[in-house]
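notes to self, project folder thing:

trying the whole complex as one job this time. last attempt i did each chain seperately and stitching them together was a nightmare. two parts in total, labels are on each line so i dont mix them up again. if this works i'll redo the older ones the same way
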Amino acid sequence: MTPARGDHDARRTEVSMAVWRVLAERGFQGLTLRAVAAEMGASTGLLTHYFPSKRALLKHALDVLEQQAAERPRPAAERAGDAKGLAMLRAVLLDILPLDRENADGNRIWVSSWDVALADPELAAEHAERYRRARENMTRLVADAQRLGELPADRPAGDLAAAAQSFVLGLVVQALFAPQEFPPARQTELLDAYLAGLAAG
Amino acid sequence: MTPARGDHDARRTEVSMAVWRVLAERGFQGLTLRAVAAEMGASTGLLTHYFPSKRALLKHALDVLEQQAAERPRPAAERAGDAKGLAMLRAVLLDILPLDRENADGNRIWVSSWDVALADPELAAEHAERYRRARENMTRLVADAQRLGELPADRPAGDLAAAAQSFVLGLVVQALFAPQEFPPARQTELLDAYLAGLAAG
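result (full assembly):
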């Protein structure tokens, strides 16, 4: 007898949560069928039912990561409400930074995923597409800010967005490695100074 | 009879080169004793003589990475000669970017190393120290540029250096994932626009 659909979905959720906890603690480097099984108190045999290969486990982990990213809290964007242009761009960029523990955990897993993704052309393409979509969103906000006269219009919005995304991604990496040198207040100051520089043109 | 010192050193170099090739092809995710042994055409047993544990192999790989980074070509800094201030800061930042294949390989391994390093407090501290030293060097160049009047002096040199390092690290990540969207010319333009923004204050 195969398990009822509801049981199956519940078990999948349980597997996904165990994958997330292993990633948060050990990164992709530590993601093995054995580690996930141990986290669930289940057998490795059960896990091979879900993941016939290491690559299947990696692909699932990247899906879990994307889903968690989609659902993560966005306090700055919430505070910004229906603000437009530069204010919303600032909120979107702020919400990427590891300003609290939960976000730091999520970012740590993203940074960790770059190793796996760069080693596999298909996964690299998927990651590239995720960052391209994020840049598109930022490009729209930059274009709004340019229309509102908040950012100079003499550079393509796509270039400003790519530059802002680069700045924030690099700041994430620095802050993960040196949280004492990059406490939340300093991350915010650096971002604000960056945006002020863009605005000054 | 133990091998002569020269043999031992030659073998260590051979091991280090095999580690580097495995990293360039598969990242830290793919770095195993077995992969290094296969790359050398040697037995896994021989490798355990050098690396009693996976962690010992990782630590050695990070040392190899640091040594390769120290010895990598720096064409922009060479062209800059004994330039000072902003011109040398630009050269140092340009030489970090994946503007050619060899640099892209090196950067790909650095990015890949972040997963391993973040999972291990000691390795994370060593990586943090490497980035801190790089920031110190950039801070010195920023301070020179401020003295020369090339960069505004109203922000601490350390903040400008941290911001520039963030920008470049994030651009490296973007360019590795989307080399077609970030060809060398665009990377250089984005960096120049960034530095122009700093100079404009």
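what i see at first glance: The domain at 5-68 of chain B is CATH 1.10.10.60 (Arc Repressor Mutant, subunit A).
need to look closer tmrw
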